[in-house]
Design brief:
Pathway: Carbohydrate biosynthesis; gluconeogenesis; Carbohydrate degradation; glycolysis; D-glyceraldehyde 3-phosphate from glycerone phosphate: step 1/1. This is Triosephosphate isomerase. Homodimer. This protein is an alpha/beta fold. The protein has 9 helices and 8 strands. It has helices at residues 31-46, 67-74, 99-104, 115-120, 125-137, 154-168, 173-176, 197-212, 250-262, and strands at 19-24, 56-61, 80-83, 109-112, 141-146, 180-183, 221-224, 240-243. The chain has an 8-stranded parallel β-barrel, surrounded by 4 helices. Strand 2 (56-61), helix 2 and strand 3 form a beta-alpha-beta unit. Helix 1 packs parallel to helix 2 (67-74), helix 1 (31-46) runs parallel beside helix 9 and helix 6 (154-168) packs across helix 8.
Length: 267
């Protein structure tokens, strides 16, 4: 696979059993520190030439002001550039960033529906659906964040997440096939430890059963929520990890890449 295809905003070119390993900086770093860290992240990726094959897809999501410089830093690398949010249209939307502009910058995926956006910025299912549709229309893969507010039975958590996905695509399951799902239990975000591997595996398993009824059993579902090195090998049926503060040490990002590359095919 041509490594440059992985950074194309038109699509994420992956294998059916691809694993995703990504990280968002949120707003933890300033501009200079972000660029320094991105250089370290690129070095971790470049030190693993097997990533160019495309089975493990690394991605990074810095803050908006960093995107143009980040695009230059990741050029020619398998590292896919993402954005932390987007608006739902061009036009008179002061302070928003249209997905069409993100596509111009080389952004390949965009985080939509994170629990912090839902809670602090009152983004409901209708807003999330508008953003998902706009991202898909601009050729950018939505990284749809979903998750239950409180720990519950895995089957109940999976049902809640399924309905979040359905709402995000307004019931258009063909559009859902364009998504990457980031399953992030709200109660695990920022916690000292992630949700247990057994809980995550059971929720994702039940979710896959529900998605299979719409031909989406292979939809990528990655886990986020205090994810860190050592977790991925314990999970079953999960398509990778969405890392947060633990990967602000670039070496930890490299460790998770190694764990992903060591996973058997079809895991």
């Amino acid at each position: 696979m041509d490594a440059t295809a992985l950074t194309s905003p038109a699509s994420l070119c992956t294998f059916p059993d691809s694993l995703y390993v990504g990280v968002s900086t949120k707003m933890y770093m300033g501009y200079a520190r972000s660029l320094e860290w991105l250089e370290q992240l690129v070095a971790e990726v470049d030190a693993r030439p097997a990533l160019a094959a495309g089975r493990v897809v690394p991605f990074v999501i810095p803050s908006f002001p960093v995107l143009p410089a980040a695009a230059a830093l990741v050029a020619g690398s398998p590292l896919v550039l993402g954005a932390q949010n987007c608006g739902w249209a061009d036009g008179p939307w002061t302070g928003e960033v249209a997905p069409s502009m993100l596509a111009e910058l080389g952004v390949g995926l965009v985080e939509i529906g994170h629990a912090e956006r839902r809670r602090h910025f009152a983004e409901d299912d209708a807003v999330v659906a508008l953003k998902v549709g706009a991202a898909v229309g601009s050729g950018i893969t939505p990284l749809l964040c979903v998750g239950e507010a409180e720990a519950c039975a895995p089957e109940a958590a999976a049902e809640f997440v399924f309905h979040q996905i359905k709402a995000a695509v307004s019931g258009d399951w063909a559009m859902a096939a364009r998504l990457v799902i980031a399953y992030e239990p709200v109660w695990a975000i920022g916690a000292p430890e992630p949700a247990s591997a057994q809980y995550v595996s059971m929720v994702v398993g039940a979710l896959r059963d529900a998605l299979a009824q719409h031909g989406l059993s292979g939809l990528p579902v990655i886990y986020g929520g205090s994810a860190k090195p050592g977790l991925l090998p314990q999970l079953s049926g999960v398509s990778g990890l969405f890392l947060g503060r633990f990967a602000h040490d670039a070496a930890n990002f490299g460790r998770v890449l190694d764990e992903a590359m060591a996973q058997p095919t079809g895991c």
